[in-house]
């Protein structure tokens, strides 16, 4: 079964059985990497839980062929991820918690801009991955909505509907890298999402200092010049628009007390 995603600016299709993607004639992308349950157990509340063996598929550097040189020049990368339906024990299907590795070309841990394509997402993020996680947010988003994760924050993307596979695209730094060690040392992020029926509730991870979780809906990030159009289409219309992803230092003042 495949679902087209051309309405989000790229001629490609998302497959769920098996997980993966196919690309139109003018779009290039890699074979997806499959994250299996065995790969993410260390970040789960119950590392011995049952769930789909193939948890999610990720394809980094998806692009229209005519955009590739511009993307390389701007140190930008577009990634697409799709999740299996179901659950991981008591938890929803979700990614591993991580922080973005510092990019050599900017000296910053890059931000990331998500756009939900299918399903219902919760983008969880926390200010630090130390014992004190700082501010913690869970941003609930549906198709077409955008969520911006600021530089250096720990985060994970969660499927909020166990019956519907989640798919999203994201703008990333071309030197992207994931750091897992600090999160795994705490056996996850500061809050665990748990499914009660089809609802997601939250349980604090006792390995962090207790704090408050703020559950919010997406906003428009007008300070970064974003519109409601699909984020890949926004790049086509104005290639410089997402320079803040690869050069977050150029807008350092906008990250001070950033609120998702």
Report the end-to-end length measured between terminal Cα atoms. Answer: 34 Å
> Which structural class do you get from the secondary structure elements?
mainly beta
Describe the largest sheet. Answer: 6 strands, antiparallel
* H/E series: EEEEEHEEHEEEEEEEEEEEHEEEHHH
Radius of gyration: 17 Å
Structure description:
There is one protein chain. This protein is mainly beta and 260 residues long. Helices cover 12% and strands 37% of the residues. The chain has six helices and 21 strands. It has helices at 37-40, 68-73, 181-185, 231-237, 243-246, 252-255, and strands at 2-4, 12-16, 19-23, 27-28, 33-36, 54-60, 63-64, 76-83, 87-88, 91-92, 99-100, 112-118, 121-126, 136-141, 146-149, 154-159, 167-173, 178-179, 191-196, 199-204, 213-216. It has a six-stranded antiparallel β-sheet. Strands 16-13-14-21 form a four-stranded mixed β-sheet, with no helix packed on it. The chain starts with a strand and ends in a 5-residue tail after the last helix. 42% of the residues are buried. The mean pLDDT is 95.
Could you list some keywords that capture this structure?
mainly beta, 12% helix
């Amino acid at each position: 079964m495949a679902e087209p995603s051309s309405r989000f600016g790229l001629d490609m299709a998302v497959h769920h059985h098996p997980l993966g993607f196919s690309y139109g004639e003018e779009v290039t992308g890699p074979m997806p990497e499959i994250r299996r349950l065995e790969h993410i157990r260390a970040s789960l509340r119950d590392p011995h839980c049952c769930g789909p063996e193939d948890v999610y598929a990720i394809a980094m550097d998806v692009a229209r062929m005519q955009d590739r040189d511009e993307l390389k020049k701007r140190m930008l990368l577009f990634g697409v991820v799709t999740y299996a339906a179901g659950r991981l024990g008591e938890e929803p299907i979700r990614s591993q918690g991580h922080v973005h590795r510092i990019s050599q070309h900017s000296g910053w841990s890059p931000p990331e801009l998500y756009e939900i394509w299918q399903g219902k997402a919760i983008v969880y993020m926390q200010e630090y991955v130390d014992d004190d996680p700082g501010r913690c947010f869970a941003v609930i988003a549906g198709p077409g909505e955008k969520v911006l994760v600021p530089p250096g924050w720990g985060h994970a993307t969660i499927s909020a509907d166990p019956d519907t596979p989640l798919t999203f695209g994201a703008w990333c730094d071309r030197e992207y890298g994931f750091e897992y060690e600090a999160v795994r040392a705490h056996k996850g992020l500061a809050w665990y999402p748990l499914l009660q029926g089809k609802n997601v509730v939250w349980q604090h991870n006792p390995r962090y200092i207790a704090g408050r979780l703020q559950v919010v809906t997406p906003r428009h990030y007008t300070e970064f010049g974003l519109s409601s159009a699909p984020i890949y289409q926004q790049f086509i219309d104005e290639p410089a628009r997402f320079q803040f992803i690869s050069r977050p230092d150029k807008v350092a003042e906008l990250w001070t007390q950033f609120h998702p």
